[in-house]
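Our collaborator T.R. sent over the components below with a one-line note: 'Predict the complex.' Nothing else. No constraints on interfaces, no templates requested, no preferences about which chain binds where. So this is a plain run: every listed entity goes in together, and whatever single assembly comes back becomes the starting point for the next discussion.
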Amino acid sequence: MEATDEQIAEQLQAKVDALRGRVCCACQSEICGHELLFSIAMGLGDNPRCANCLADGLGRPTSQLRDHLQSHFRQRSCYGEVWQRESEREGFARGTLPGCLWAGTDTEHPPDAEDLLDAMVKPLEEPDVIGLAAEAWDAGEMACGDLVLALRQRMNALPAGTRLKLTAQDAGATEDIPAWCRMTGHVLLAQHHPHYWIQRKE
Ligand SMILES: [Zn+2]
Ligand SMILES: [Zn+2]
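Returned assembly:
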């Protein structure tokens, strides 16, 4: 039986709770619940980082990473729910941009980062043109932070340029995998749920 959105949100909340109190593994600064969610979404739930170090590691401006992940979370009920709870915990109203990461801004929503990043990756709809991938991995029912964590570890172990065919049954993968690829720089060659063809970045 498939887990409900509520169950998935509870699992995600448990991951955040388990990490609470950890400091950034790069700069040792304190990290808030939002940054823990960022780390989980980027596949770094084993070694959480502050937003600045996360962005540094990806070679992106912090504001771009932040806006992109926040807009991604708006598409995903599990991340969205836990995000709002973390805002309340930190004293920010639901539905506003939390001042811990958006100090000095007062817009309701950040500009949509998707358009900008879509230009960098053009996933093809037809997987036939991709040919054989060198590697294949069936992630089964893995979801949310577990899926991207395991995917990150697999991609890191591959030589640059290697193509991986990922099979991921979780319905959220249709949002999570493209978002993860855009931010990490790995190339999503094609997606045809539950299959995703990803080329490891150079
Ligand atoms: Zn840091
Ligand atoms: Zn925060």
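Summary for T.R.: Residues 24, 26-27, 29, 49-50, 52-53 surround zinc ion (ligand 1) (CB under 6 Å).
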